[in-house]
Amino acid sequence: MASKVIQAIYNDDDVLMLAVKRVKEAHHHIEEIYTPFPVHGLDKAMGLAPTRLAITAFMYGCVGISVAVLMMNFIMIEDWPQNIGGKPSFSFIENMPAFVPIMFEMTVFFAAHLMVITFYMRSRLWPFKKAENPDVRTTDDHFLMEVSLNDNEDELTRLLVDTGAVEVKVSEKH
Amino acid sequence: MASHYEAPIREPLVTGEKSYHDVTVDVAAPVEGRANKQWWIVFSIALVAFLWGLGCIIYTVSTGIGVWGLNKTVGWAWDITNFVWWVGIGHAGTLISAVLLLFRQKWRMAVNRSAEAMTIFSVVQAGLFPIIHMGRPWLAYWVLPIPNQFGSLWVNFNSPLLWDVFAISTYLSVSLVFWWTGLLPDFAMLRDRAVKPFQKKIYSLLSFGWSGRAKDWQRFEEVSLVLAGLATPLVLSVHTIVSFDFATSVIPGWHSTIYPPYFVAGAIFSGFAMVLTLLIIMRKVSNLEAYITRGHIEYMNKVILLTGGVVSVAYITEFVIAWYSGSNYEDYTYLSIGAATGPYWWAFWALIICNFVVPQTLWIKKLRRNYIWSFICSIVINIGMWFERFDIIVINLSKGHLPSSWTMFSPTFVDIGIFIGTIGFFFVLFLLYARTFPVIAQAEVKTILKSSGERYKRLREEGKSLVGTGADARTSVIAGTSTKENLDQDTKNNS
Fold first, then answer.
1. Model pLDDT, residue B285
2. Ranges of residues in chain B whose predicted pLDDT is under 50
3. Contact indicator for B20, A140 with CB cutoff of 8 Å
4. Rounded to whole angstroms, how far apart are CA atoms B332 and B353?
5. Which residues, in sequence order, are CB contacts of A169 under 8 Å at separation 6+?
6. Which residues of A touch B479 (CB under 8 A)?
7. A1–chain B nearest CA distance, Å
8. Which of A71, B198, B357, B445 is the most exposed place for a label (fewest CB within 10 A)?
C-alpha cells in the first residue's frame, strides 16, 4: 500500500516540541521524526514505548558470567586440575576468588557488545546501510516530522504551518 | 522552555554567538578543510618516530629480548613501565565519557570524543609491549583459552597476567564500541554535508546509515547510559588488575594492598594530563576555542588536583610505612629513605617533584585557568607518571633480598627506540583522527547549547523566550513566514 505522508520541517527544537503536542492533540498520527540531536522528552511526547535495551544488557551480562564460570570450572577444576603455588585446584568454590576478575570482565564484555549489536540490528544500522533521512538538513539544524495523510492534506498543511513549520510538503512513503 | 534552564552563575560551556548550525560548521571545518603546513610537519616527525620504533621492534623480535638492557636482577623495565604508562593514560577517556556521563557533567561533551580517541590509541600502544615482550609474538594467541593441541596445559586463570589479557582486551573493545556508537550521528552529519562523492561514500560507510529517527535517539541514549554504567566499573577494574601484576607478587615494594586504588587514581591523573596536553593544542589548531574553553581546562585541572592528591597521599603512606616497619628490605623500596638517597635518587626526586610538588600549584585559581601553565603542568605530570612506573619496577627490582645480585638498569637504544616509536605511533593515529573524524561530539553539544551556550544564557537573562531561537539565517532562507504568507494568500484567493 503506497501511503502518502506530509513532511513538515522545523528549525527549532522547542517549536518542534510544541508542534508535536498540537499534532497529537489534533489526533493525527506522527509516523516519524528526524532530528539532528536527541531532543529531550520527544519520545514521550510522541508516545513512543520505552526501549528495552537495558533489559537485554542485563540478560547478556548473565550469559557472560555463566560462560565465565562454566569455562573456568571446566578448564581449571575438571579438565586438568593443577597444584599451582601450593594451591590445589580441586574445588570451584575454594578457587573462586582468583576467578572473580575474569567473571567480571566477561560479564561486561558480553553485556556491552551484545547490547550494542542488538541496538544496531533493531535500529538497522550497519556498514553500507543507506541513510533514510529524507532531508540532509536533519543532521545539521533542522527537524523533520512525518505525519500520515488520509485525504486531509489542506487541513494538515494548515495545522503544520501554523505550528511553525518552515517547509511543508507531501511525499510518497518509501 | 524551562527544561533549558541552567543557573546563570555557571560559566557558559559554548562561548560566542553560536547557533546549532555554527556547531555543525565548526566541527566539520577541520575535516572539510585542507591540512596546513604545521600539521604535515608534526605528522612527518611522528611518522619518522613511528618507523624508527617499528625498526627497533623488528630488531627485537628477530634477534631476541637480549637486545634490551634487561639483566638477571631487573627482568622487567622499560617495556612494562611503558605498558602501564600507556594503559594509565587511556583511563581519562573512559572516565570523561562514562563516569562524567553518570554524574551528568555537561562539560564532558566538548572533550569526550578526543579523550576516547586518546584512550583507544594509547591502549593500542600499551598492548604492543606485552606482545613484544613475549619474544615470539606470533604465538600471542597462546594466551587465549583455546582447546589445546600444544601439550597438556590450559592457560592459568589464577595468574594476574592472564587477568590482564581479559581486562585489556575487554577494555579496548568496549571503549571502541562506545566511541563508535557516539560517532554515528556525527559521521552522519559529515556525510550529509559532503559534496565530493568519495567523501560522501566514506562517511556513509562510517555512519552505518544513521538517520536520526526519534526511536534511534531513544535507543542511542539508553545504550550510552548503559555502556557508561558498564564502562565505569570496567575502567576501575582494568588498572586494578594491572596493579595486581605487582601486588600479588612477593617483591618488597610491590606486595602492597594500597596498589589498586592508588593505581586507578594515578591512571586518571596521568590520563587527564594527556587530555590537557592534546586539547590545549587542538583547541587552537582546529579553531575550537569556543567549545573547549578556559572553564573546561579548569574543570580538568580540578580532577588532576584531586587524583594528584590521592596519589600524593599514597606516596606519603608508602614512605611512612616503609620507614615505620623498620624492615631492611623496606628501606630499598621505591618510596623510602634508601631510594631517596641511593643510586636512583634522581628517579625518586623526579617522581616527587613532577607528581607531588608541581601539581600543587593548581590550587591557585589563576594558574589552573592559565593555558600555558596548564600545558606545562600536564607535560610535567606525564613525565612524572612515567617515572612513577619506572620507580616501581626498576628501583624495587634493583635491590632485592640478595645483596650480591644488586645492580642497576641501563636502557639500550632499542628500549628507548621502541618507547619513542609508540609515542610516534600514538601521534600518527591522533593526527589522522584530528583531520578525518568529528573531534567534538557535535550532536551532544547541540543538546546543551540552549542551556549552556553563552548566547542562550544571555537571552534567558534578558527574560526572552528561547522558542524559535534555534533558527539560523544561513540555513533558513526558505523562511517559515513566507510559507505562511503564501498559504494565507492561497486561502484568500480560494474564498
1. 86
2. 1-2, 478-482, 484, 490, 494-495
3. yes
4. 20
5. A6, A7
6. 166
7. 22
8. B198
Q: A127 contacts in B (CB within 8 Å)?
A: 205-206, 208
Q: What's the grid cell of residue B159?
A: 595468574
Q: Which three cell numbers stand for residue B278?
A: 592534546
Provide the grid cell at B269: 591523573
- Please identify which residue in the block is written with the cell numbers 581486562: B167
Q: What is the pLDDT of residues B96-142, one digit of tens each?
A: 888 888 988 889 999 999 999 999 999 999 999 999 998 899 988 88
Q: What is the pLDDT of residue B276?
A: 93
- In chain A the first and final C-alpha atoms are separated, in Å, by 10
How far is residue A142's CA from residue B476's CA, in Å, rounded to a whole number?
A: 9
- Chain B residue with the nearest C-alpha to that of A117: B177
Cell numbers at A138, concatenated: 536533519
- Residue B280: predicted pLDDT: 92
Question: Nearest by CB to B476, which of A11, A35, A53?
Answer: A11
Distance CA A52, CA A66 (A): 22
Contact B158 A11 (CB under 8 A): no
Interchain CB distance below 8 Å, A112 and B221? no
SS3 (DSSP) at B319 = helix
Type of residue numbered B116: E
| ipTM (interface predicted TM) | 0.93
- DSSP-derived 3-state class of residue A38: coil
pTM: 0.91
